[in-house]
Every structure is written in C-alpha cells, then in structure tokens.
Amino acid sequence: MSDTHSESTTVSYVRTETIPQQAAPANAAGPAKWIKDNLFATWANSLLTVAAIYVIYLVLASTLPWIFGGVWSTGSLRECREVLDGATGACFSVLTERWNQLLFGFKYPTDQYWRPTVAFLLMFVAMAPVLFFDLPRKLLIVTGLFPFVAFWLIWGGTIWTPLFALLSVIVGYIVYSKLVARSFAAGFFGGIAAALVFFWLSGFIVPSLTPDEPFLEAVPSRDLGGYMLNMMLGVTCVSLSLPIGIALALGRQSSMPLIKWVSVIFIEFIRGVPLITLLFVANVMLAYFFPPGSGVDLFLRVVIMITMFSSAYIAEVIRGGLAALPKGQYEAADSLGLDYSQAMRLIILPQALKISIPGIVNIAVGLFKDTTLVSVISMFDLIGMIRGPILASTDWAGVYWELFGFAALIFFVVCYGISQYSQWLERRLATDHR
Questions:
Q1: What is the DSSP string of 28-53?
Q2: What distance in Å separates the CA atoms of residue 17 and residue 292, rounded to the nearest whole number?
Q3: What is the CATH number of domain 222-434?
Q4: CA-CA distance, 173 to 183, in Å (whole number)?
Q5: Alpha-carbon distance 224 to 293, whole Å?
Q6: Which residue has the higher pLDDT, 354 or 291?
Q7: Could you give the angle at the alpha carbon of 227 between the alpha carbons of 225 and 228, nearest 5°?
Q8: What does the buried/exposed string (b/e) look like for 388-403 if buried means 16 or more CB atoms within 10 Å of the residue's CB?
Q9: What predicted TM-score, i.e. pTM, was given to this entire model?
Q10: With CB atoms 3.0 to 4.6 Å apart as the test, which of 22, 31, 257, 263 could cross-link to 252 if both were Cys?
C-alpha cells in the first residue's frame, strides 16, 4: 500500500515545459479575418461588397487612363489636343502654365511670391502651440505676433501699421482684464471696443511716420487672389470667429438683460441671412458704415461679414456644450469661491469646448469651403481665377475637369487634415472614460 502511494507521488501532474506558441488559423487573424468580418460577414454584405468593387472598377477604368495619359508641357488647349491626337488624356498643362495664378492670383507681383510663401510657413509654426498644447507655452508669443508679421509680409508697406495694431490689441487686453471680473462678455466686448478706438486714433499718426520708400513693396488688397486668398480668409475668419462665438454664447446666457438680448438678436439675425447676402452687403453697403475717407478695403469688409456669420453658428454650438454640462459643475465652481471669470476659464469652458469640438470643426470646414463664394463679388480667389481670367483666355477655354479637379484636391487636403486633427484632439481629451 505504501509502495503504491510513494509511486503515485512521484508522478508529476504539472507541465514543466511550455508548448511552443502556434500561429492563429489563417481565417482567424490578419487580413483574412478583417476581410471576412468587414466585407463578407453576411450574404447581404457580400453582395454589397461585390457591387461596390464593380462600381470602383468602372470609375477607375475610365479615370486612370485619363489621368496617366495626361499632357503637362503644352502652351494651350489646341497644342494639348494635337499631342493627344484623339487619345484619352487630360490636359494638365493648364496647371503648369497657370500655377502662379491659381496660387497667388494674376496681379500679385511675381518677384514677391516669397512673401506669402514665408507667411504660409510661419503659420504652421504659429499654430503649433495652439493645436498641440503639450508644447512649451512660451511659443504662444510667436502665435500672438504672427498675425502682425503675416500682415506686413503679405501687404507690405510701412511697418508702423502692424505695430500700432499690436499696441491696439495690448490696450484691448488691458481693458478686458479690468472688466472681465464682472462679466466675461462685458470684458470681451469692452476690450474689442477699446482696441478699435485706439487703432482708429493711430490712423492719424501712421501717415506722419510712413517713409517715402518702405522696406517691402506695398501690395493693395485688390491684387490678392488665388488659393492664397482662400487661405487668408479661412484662417483669419476661423481664428476671429471662435473667441467671438464664445463671447456670444456666454452673452446669451448672461444675467445682464442688455448683453443677453444684444447677443440673442445678433445670433438669430445672422443665422437667418444667407452668407452670399452678407457678402453683397460687404461689397456694396458696409463701406457706408465707416467714416468718410477711411478707405476700408473690400478684404477687411469681407472678413467682417464672414466672421460675423461663422461666429453666430459657433455661438450656438458652444451654447449646446454649455447646456450639456450638469448644473453641479456650476455649483462646484461657486462652492470653491471662484468668481465668474475663473469659473468659466478653469471649469466650465474647458468641458463645454471639449463637447463642442465636432460642431466647431464642422463649421470651420464649411467656412473654409464657403470662402469660394467671394468670387461672386469679383474677388479672384481660386474659383474666381478659374471662372474668370483662365477660362476666359482663348488658350484654355474649355478646360474644366483639370482645373476644378485641382481645386477640389487642394480643398480636400486641407479639410481632411482639419477633420483628422479634430479626431486626434477628441481622443486626446477623452479623459472621462479612462
């Protein structure tokens, strides 16, 4: 009995060697599994996949020969057709021939293209500390100085105008810091009013300081054009409409009746008017609201109208984010002894803006595409250049797909980049589910 027991205790029931890891079956991992789960999970999905592949084949079969058979080196549409000699192919020569007009317009001095190019590159440096908040906060100084440097690079002329504009912003910030303790909206609008008054007064000082030969050649706004004009309008109007939209959203919820009703009337009126109507107002009527002889150019008037339009929509998006916050967040701010400005800056607005990111990005993308509407008021942006000087030329009359396809491509690149950044930002700020 004991021998049997001792013999049984020597038998090991625990594995002492690890079985080598085996690869998963081919249909349970990798591309095969993905194809099975996403494209052929059911009979209905399989039929839809086959139909979609067939449609994609038809589209590519007709477009790829046209793209790869394109001509890039002719001087006119007639020469392009002679080279093709009846074969299928696009006439991309219009892009290589008119690229400078598509990007910079047809009046901007050709020897000064380096100026908007440098401003475009500086834009990414200035946007980096705002878009990627892990960077050192000291870089925000570059962000604050960029608008004034870009203005001087693109328009040229005297440097005193952007310097006094910078001083106006500083004066407005001082007024804002004095009034914001009482109300964010009052401080914000008070700061804007102070900045505008100081800048208007500087208009009497700048002419006496302007040298006869400025360092950079002055370029009037009417000479701006091409994709450069779309980028300038998009970046400027989005950057201005976001803080104004925040102020309008807070003003609509303000306990001060005057600020509340001014915000409500502004938002509802602007949202009820089409953007193209506001652009016609900017082109025809808005100049009458400025002092006689002030010479406010069309670019500034268009910026004002587009900013007003987008800020009204952004205000409603942010108001939705504020309404989505539970009442306990406001009560928590009060219990900590925070004043209105501190509560909004530290507790309320960060949460509301995080909720509002998809709506804000949607408006920003729509606004950037809507900058092409300025072509209806004789501003030669990218679409205006295509519809106007290029297609009106006898050399390229009849070239449509190549030009509008190029416009669609570069707009898609920018809008897709904005969309991808917003998705990254949402994942980066998704701290409530960790």
A1: GSHHHHHHHHHTSSSHHHHHHHHHHH
A2: 93
A3: 1.10.3720.10
A4: 14
A5: 22
A6: 354
A7: 65
A8: bbbeebebbeebeebb
A9: 0.82
A10: 263
